[in-house]
User: Which sequence fits this backbone?
């Protein structure tokens, strides 16, 4: 596991770049950035910006927001949040269709659906070479604790059905966003 001192720390708002897993390249994607913002009010905002040839990607059409499982099987933006050193964590999935899901895990891949009182607010914008998904959600989506570690990631489906996996940091081996080493961002003052 990585030492906390080797992780990147942010205080309020910063743009971060995701990297593609070397086993899942995509020629259609130029870059994926994420802007993380934590407001004093307790609201968290994430903005995922995918740049590339969107015609070569399978991007779900926007629909009314709803909770849904299996979003990671298609184009989906994800956030994993762990308090302190875990082992518990949360997984938040957001689709360009406006579907979303939230899970609570007791340990590595031992989880269930997270009960929340309100849905996240998701806004999607796109043109031929840029897809933006911004999501705002309250503190109840996050695990308890003041020191939070984040893993930011994306699964992007090509028009051929192949998936590419993007993250701030990939652990060795196959793509695994649940791995403790993928929680590469320390939130300060949360």
Assistant:
């Amino acid at each position: 596991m990585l030492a906390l001192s080797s992780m990147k720390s942010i205080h309020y708002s910063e743009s971060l770049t995701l990297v593609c897993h070397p086993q899942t390249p995509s020629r259609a994607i130029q870059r994926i950035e994420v802007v993380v913002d934590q407001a004093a009010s307790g609201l968290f905002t994430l903005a995922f910006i995918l740049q590339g040839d969107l015609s070569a990607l399978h991007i779900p059409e926007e629909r009314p927001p709803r909770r849904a499982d299996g979003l990671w099987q298609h184009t989906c933006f994800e956030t994993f949040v762990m308090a302190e050193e875990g082992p518990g964590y949360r997984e938040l999935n957001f689709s360009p269709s406006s579907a979303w899901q939230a899970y609570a895990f007791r340990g590595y891949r031992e989880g269930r659906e997270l009960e929340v009182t309100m849905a996240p607010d998701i806004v999607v914008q796109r043109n031929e070479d840029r897809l933006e998904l911004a999501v705002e959600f309250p503190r109840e989506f996050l695990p308890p604790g003041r020191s939070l570690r984040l893993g930011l990631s994306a699964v992007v489906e090509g028009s051929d059905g192949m998936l590419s996996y993007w993250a701030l940091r990939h652990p060795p081996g196959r793509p695994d966003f649940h791995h403790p080493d993928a929680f590469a961002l320390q939130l300060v003052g949360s």
About this structure: The chain has no helices and 15 strands.
